[in-house]
Amino acid sequence: MLTVAQLRACLFLSFTVLLGTCFQLIAFVFQYKLDTYSVFAQKSNPLNVFLAKYAWGWTSIPLLAFMLVYVHTCTTTTINSSTYKRYAAVAIRWTSATLYWVIMTQWAFGNPLLDRVYLSTGHCLTMTNTVEVRSIRQCKSLGGSLTGLDISGHCFLLVHAILTTFEELKPYFKLHTLDSSSALMAHFTSLSKMCLSILSLVLITLGLIWWIMLFTTSLYFHSFIEASSGTLLGMLHWLVLYVVTGSLYPNVLPFDVSLVSQPNKSQKHL
């Protein structure tokens, strides 16, 4: 079952993609030409070339650093089984998110899954005939174009990064909303406070950039089917890990702030 915060995040990202594709449809119906001179309408724009295409790389490194610092800060200096379990949970979440990105966009014993869908649902059309190809790159090298379902890799990647970041930052910001937050934060060292503040700011800034790029991608570059399918696939890992698996095995989830405030009880359950 989704929490209220999770449902809002899901609806917010879905609405962002829907809004972009609706504007695209309205422009088509009324024969209004979208601003192709906008920097966001160019695939060569710096945000796309240097950031969006490598969204998981930009996100995963500071995210892993944040996860490790947060767990280290919220656990005692004594090495025990519960401490190991918390670090193991971090490893599981970060590794599974990274592997999901690899399988979908980089490599899955050959072509990544998104490419496999694109190739299996269409053909490579050249100027003269239809050609059988084994990769998107091969089709482009022949001067052809593919006719299959081009699931938006950008929508997938950006949604995946945003939702994973959202889940990992949630307990940290929840800590600041508790009545006992000042007492809890008093146990944090100045260095850990500074690291968590800087890393969370970096991740929020990246999340804002990813959200802007998600809207412009759905507005300029993909149809509703392409953008929505990419968005749904971007939500899949989040649903499986943080919603389904998290409800069955809560210890896999990010360290809950309520356990920080009651360390003795938390160790009994971990």
Note down, in words, how this protein is organized.
- Helix content is 70%, strand content 2%.
- The protein is mostly helical and 270 residues long.
- The protein has a 3-stranded antiparallel sheet.
- A hairpin with a 4-residue loop joins strand 1 and strand 2.
- Helix 7 (153-177) runs antiparallel to helix 9 (190-220).
- The chain starts with a helix and ends with a helix.
- The chain crosses the membrane at residues 12-34, 54-75, 194-213, 219-244.
Short description:
With 270 residues, the protein is mainly α. The chain has twelve helices and three strands. Helix 7 packs across helix 10.
Order of helices and strands: HHHHHEEHEHHHHHH
Q: What Rg is obtained from the alpha carbons, in whole angstroms?
A: 21 Å
Overall tally of domains: 1
Number of helices: 12
Q: Oligomeric status of the shown chains? A: single chain
List the helices and strands and how they pair.
Layout: H1 4-29, H2 46-51, H3 55-74, H4 81-105, H5 113-120, E1 124-125, E2 130-131, H6 136-141, E3 145-146, H7 153-177, H8 181-185, H9 190-220, H10 224-248, H11 257-261, H12 263-269
Antiparallel strand pairs: 1-2, 1-3
Helix pairs in contact: 1-7, 1-9, 1-10, 3-4, 3-7, 3-9, 7-9, 7-10
Q: What features would you highlight for this structure?
A:
270 residues, mainly alpha, three-stranded antiparallel beta sheet, 12 helices, 70% helix, disordered C terminus, lipid metabolism, transmembrane, membrane, FIT, endoplasmic reticulum
